[in-house]
Design brief:
The protein is mostly helical and 96 residues long. It is built from five helices and no strands. 7% of the residues are buried.
């Protein structure tokens, strides 16, 4: 079970790394063009912070907190993986 949790979190982190790189490139290009990028970056940071808070709240829920750590990592990884992975695949196809 720990291996599956590690794979899920590795895919999630790889997807987040791609999305972070894409946002950083868009911010640099926008700033070079003279566009205000503060709102764009703030919006992206708030989305990531909200998603992280939701996953942490789930991991700290009483019913899940009593489970084994590997089970908890598997559950949170299964919930955290689909959205960033789907978005990363979509951006990879359309930006690539």
């Amino acid at each position: 079970m720990a291996v599956l949790a590690a794979v899920l979190w590795a895919v999630t982190l790889a997807s987040l790394a791609w999305l972070t790189c894409l946002v950083a490139m868009a911010a640099v290009w926008g700033a070079a063009a003279g566009a205000p990028m503060g709102g764009f970056l703030l919006r992206c940071a708030l989305i990531v912070a909200g998603a992280a808070a939701a996953v942490i709240a789930l991991a700290c829920a009483p019913g899940i907190r009593r489970t084994a750590p590997s089970t908890r990592l598997l559950l949170t990884g299964a919930l955290a993986c689909p959205a960033p992975t789907a978005l990363a695949i979509w951006t990879w196809i359309h930006a690539g």
